[in-house]
Specification:
binds guanosine-5'-triphosphate, Small_GTPase, GTP-binding, Rossmann fold, seven-stranded mixed β-sheet, binds magnesium ion, nucleotide-binding, 7 strands
């Protein structure tokens, strides 16, 4: 099988304060690597990964890894519009990063109108709980996720816990959105691309996740 073949391309954006571990999550997911010392992202970095969401349906995931630092905001903003999915990341041992999640969410929603972005909220670095460093409790994160209409996952790039699950949850959410019409292919919008728009028919997935009312972007 030609590994470069894909039926759909999804553009996914990584969002959250500097040092919450966005680049580390992508490194773990795409290369299964973790670096204790990793350069802060300057502007935006780019990663690619392929995922088969059901037999015969291969998705090319294009990740925009944005810099969390405020001084890069004008650059990173220009990537919001052509994203179909966003991972909203905070560090469970950094309360400020949790408090800023709503700002990241609002900022993206305002810039993508009339499109919508589907989100997953990630409580990252949950390995820090063992050292007694957790300051954001799961219950409050779940409450925020429900307000944002996003599923919540706790993960760690350091241990690898739930990293694949977080990315796949978002990918499947977008794919499900394509099947049920919540996400649509549009001229002049690069959030989702199809390799064969005229011929490929969207099929029902073999096991579809039932949509909850909270699974919708509320912006
Ligand atoms: N304990 C722990 N540390 C982590 C984890 N993931 C990343 N780190 C560390 O956190 C620091 C910041 O990680 P980055 O991946 O660069 O964070 P970022 O969100 O990409 O930061 P910006 O590029 O500035 O926006 C690095 O020292 C990583 O080694 C994790 O799961 N657990
Ligand atoms: Mg980074």
């Amino acid at each position: 099988m030609d590994l470069t073949l894909w039926q759909y391309q999804f553009r996914i954006i990584m969002l959250g304060d500097s040092t919450v571990g966005k680049s580390s999550m992508l490194k773990r997911y795409t290369e299964d690597l973790f670096l204790e010392t990793i350069n802060q992202t300057v502007g935006v970095d780019f990663y690619v990964h392929f995922l088969e969401v059901e037999p015969g349906v291969r998705i090319k995931l294009q990740f925009w890894d944005t810099a969390g630092q405020e001084r890069f905001r004008s650059v990173t903003r220009s990537y919001y519009r052509n994203s179909v999915g966003g991972l909203l990341v905070f560090d469970v041992a950094n309360r400020a990063s949790f408090e800023h999640v709503h700002e990241w969410y609002t900022e993206v929603c305002e810039h993508v109108k009339p499109h919508t972005v589907l989100f997953v909220l990630v409580g990252h670095k949950n390995d820090r709980e063992e050292a007694g460093e957790r300051v954001v409790q799961r219950a409050e994160a779940e409450k925020l996720a429900a307000q944002l209409g996003a599923p919540y996952v706790e993960a760690s790039a350091k241990t690898g816990h739930n990293i694949r699950e977080a990315f796949e949850l978002l990918t499947r959410r977008v794919y499900q959105g394509l099947l049920n019409g919540e996400v649509q292919l549009r001229e002049g919008w690069d959030g989702v691309k199809s390799s064969a728009p005229q011929t490929h028919q969207l099929r029902k997935p073999q096991s579809s996740v039932p949509e909850k009312p909270t699974d919708r972007c509320s912006c």
